Amino acid sequence: xxxxxxxxxxxxxxxxxxxxxxxxxxxxxxxxxxxxxxxxxxxxxxxxxxxxxxxxxxxxxxxxxxxxxxxxxxxxxxxxxxxxxxxxxxxxxxxxxxxxxxxxxxxxxxxxxxxxxxxxxxxxxxxxxxxxxxxxxxxxxxxxxxxxxxxxxxxxxxxxxxxxxxxxxxxxxx
Length: 174
What we know:
Elements: H1 4-30, H2 36-58, E1 73-77, E2 82-86, H3 93-107, E3 120-132, E4 135-147, E5 157-160, H4 162-165, H5 170-173
Parallel strand pairs: 2-3
Antiparallel strand pairs: 1-2, 3-4, 4-5
Helix pairs in contact: 1-2
């Protein structure tokens, strides 16, 4: 994964290239080259590219990793206060708790709609069980509610649905 230092290095080289293209564009206007307007376009593109690389270089890439969390897939996200993730049916209660914390961290965004101090992001975890051949049943195993405003929410409300967790296949519980 690229680091912020790498993006700053790329931005530096893109900046040098932008200045070089800008000087060539100025020369194109002085000597009335036919390519002068294309050089202005290339310089403008390089300027935007340099600004983007610089911005990626100053914004830190942080991703919290919660130990014990299993892989999940987001199947619904309203972009506001509701999201649903799918977890494998062979999940334990401790893995489910860690996965809900991981999902709360991963799905948090400053850009979510709402954002008022009393609104919460609710992420529900579900799986699919097959009680009999040819029948699939979605089963909600738990949910987490976290603040839409505070990035480091220490007051997350994690709720595990014990009755649904007991319905999982017996091999998942051991």
